[in-house]
Automatic annotation (TrEMBL):
Domain of life per record: Bacteria
Pfam families registered for this protein in UniProt: Ald_Xan_dh_C (PF01315), Fer2 (PF00111), Fer2_2 (PF01799), MoCoBD_1 (PF02738), MoCoBD_2 (PF20256)
Molecular-function annotations in GO: 2 iron, 2 sulfur cluster binding; iron ion binding; oxidoreductase activity
Family per record: Belongs to the xanthine dehydrogenase family.
Species: Desulfosarcina widdelii
Domain 2Fe-2S ferredoxin-type: 5-82
Protein name, entry field: Aldehyde oxidoreductase
Amino acid sequence: MIKPRKMWLNINGADRMLICDPEKDSLAQVLRRIGLTSVKIGCDTGVCGSCSVILNGKVIRSCNRKITRVKEYSRVITLEGIGTPENLHPLQVAWMNRGAVQCGFCAPGFIVSAYALLLENDNPTRQEVRDWFQKHKNVCRCTGYKQLVDAVMDAARVVRGEASMEDITYTPPKNNECYGKPLVRPAALAKVTGLADYGEDMALKMPPETLHVAVVQPRVAHHAKILKIDTKEALQMPGVVKVITHEDIKAKGGTNQMAEANLHERSTVTLPSRKILSDEKIFRYGDVVALAIAHTPAQARAAAAKVTVDIEPLPEYLNFLDAVMPDAIRVHDDTPNLYCCQPVLKGAALEDAEKIPEILDNSACSVEGSFHSSREPHLSIEGCTVQAYFDEDDYLTFQCKSQGLYTSISRIGSSLGVARDKLRIVDNFNGASFGWSTNAGDLCLAGAAAVAVKSPVALSLSYEEHQHFSGKRCPSYSNGRVACDEKGKITAAEFDFGLDHGAYSWGGDHVMEKPVRFAFFPYNVPHVAGLCRVANTNHTFGTAYRSYGSPQAYTLSEALMDMLAEKMGIDPFEFRWINIARPGDTNINSHGFKEYPMEAMMEKMRPHYDRAVTDAKAADTPEKRRGVGLAWGGFNVTEGGTDQCTVTLELDDKDRIVKYDTWQDLGQGGDVGSLMVTLEALKPMGVTPDRIRLCQNDTKICPDSGMSAASRSHYMNGLATRMAAEKLMEAMQKPDGTYRTYMEMKAENIETRFEATYTCMADPTITRLDPNTGIGDPTPAFTYVLNMAEVEVDAATGKTTVLRFVCVYDVGKIGNIAAVSGQAYGGISHSIGFALSEDYSDVKKHTNIASSGVPYIKDIPDDILLIPCETPRKSGPFGSSGASEAFQSSGHVAVINAIYNACGVRIFDLPARHEKVKAGLDSLAAGNTIAPPRKYFLGSDLYEELETIKANPVKFRGHDMFNSLGDEDGARFF
Ligand code: FES
């Protein structure tokens, strides 16, 4: 029995009486319990700073400050005490207007921290601001930090009386020319005032009858047979309502299998691979075998800890190389571990792949290398939190974080025994995702509990549980070779990729197509023989992550480009200049690029590169080595031929336009993106931002606008919105050219609500990759980036610091410059983390954001220059395409190339942790060279495999495969 303690604290200026659990309560829990939910709990281990408050004048992290360590009558300041919507503090205004709010989960902690800084020093330098956030461990995973420092500097000017609030507030143009401008996100106000309710906040505010769910995640093996699951003791625990296993899901009519599609012609998968609750086997460390449901979260956790699982260990394959060895047993009985592959052949290889090694051998110069990219964790600060309940119409409703609301319905499928048309998904405000929330695994857990007890439930995983439960970027192993003629023109390339898709198959046949599209993008390579293979292993499953599948490609190709340039004695910039594709050239899939901004982009980069090289030479010392690295990158836009998006526009009785869509906002700006395209589409009517109301992200009332992924949202939603706007404006327009009011529409009995769907099926230029040749043009648009990193390597420790970063990019016409820049800064920061520190390979060590290598502010340079190059896209809405993915495609290789340029150590195996660089430096000092890893064995020899594929062609189903579900071709759609 707990013995509560009464205490008084002065909170935000008022004395408050509190009743605490002295054994368990942290200050954060106490503050949240009295409604101060601006205090976020992210990591819950004191490493992310989301829970920052000011205690007796000092910034502290309240999640790991036990209430017993807080003196009675202490003074506490939370965000609620700093400013309100009607009385904003300059920091809050600056945060909104400087693009410092993306997902916003970190915003309360940062603003509180910055408030304390300005109390101490109202005239800080940028460096002092950075030092402060570093010292107080404030982490932002979305923004890349630069905008946060900008915001503090703006707010400080107001605090000092040198600027007014108006001076730091962006005002949209009066002339209705909003497109491209940094309009503030509609959700920003709620986020900077702590009023946005994220997952855990929603859980606190559920009805009192809500039950709480805890997972049984045994974490005893990566691969094992389950012999017995014993729930008896758990059921006797206080407050327990039920403990469920896979049998309970099946008893309610559910299949316990998440729906899955493996549509590639070469996929050998015949059964869905993922269960909601494990039944016969554990496939990975993070699998869940049971759920404990109780009246309180603590009771549920205590009961979950009492469930025992007996297992028989099986061989564990924790990487691609082990899983594809001939003696490896199958991870899934229905398919070989290596379950799909996609070749790409171009030029002479189309006739005979064996001609490529001949061309390579006979070229003036060639280089080869083998590379490994790591299992990159997303490290959003907020993990998995879901509430599930049957609503007033008996819809099983999920309040959650999902990047694809309708896709989540498809993934849940019949797994829970609830009809698909009775599933409803609603996005909470959420603390970012970057791809992991495309899977719906956490929704299935909460849904299974809600079905079992027919009561509202709340499920919140600890950060460690979330880390093991969620998917990660597929690690890759690759071998490659590229050659050029005596003038430095590339003659041919060969490559072979192996992607580790972990325990589950869904999506593997899709991500596998990216390396065979983006290796050597956007160069002109006349002859290519390549292959990408994907395999199941016993590590966590591969999933979407910004720039899905392309960083693995650039890890190989942009390193090889630098290596070949060096061998030829040509400057890496000039070597790229020689080889970029120009009008008439084709990509490795034998199709033209959609546009050719490459020369223009390199011209924009050239002066910065020249300056950087000069700076690096001048500053280089034996102790601090300086270097410059380049990397081209880019990505596709949309999910391809079957992608479609539906939106609805309605004139309401206040003469506002209501926009209904499911543009999921994970922090990238689904709200402001939707606003921008709607404003632009309705520009002929002179609609201003205040006349648009967004109604988003609830499947019961919003149409299916598709996923927030694949840089598709702006492109697809923009085109669909334009179609809906044309219909609405046509209906509203009077013969004299003016527009009817709502009352006039009703008086004339004219429809006021219009839905429109844009589908890529309508685009005849799109063709899937041929599974036999890799010829194809699967998506309607590309985005392009050219990255340059300037680094310093400490010769004594091997530690790399990125000093400056320049990114020239072309995403077409920019819709909202603040949102696009936000994706750029954020993508660059993830790229730097991917290059230097991030990893989820060791499940015992990589349990939180800090131990998994999340970059803190000092790991990301303050000096990041973004240079747009706006080539209008013919097919896209208003000249735009999409943004986001490209910004995380290749920046990591710019860093890796810069390390080599600085100190001669080439990193073939990500991440470039300081001990790895130091070992390379020591090796060089001892007079050794640094050899690449031995060529990886990826299941078979590349050319033997290409020969086998040629000898056994599969029927290319093109886009028709989606229409043939139900016949033999549809057998892979579960
Ligand atoms: Fe900082 Fe998302 S905006 S973590």
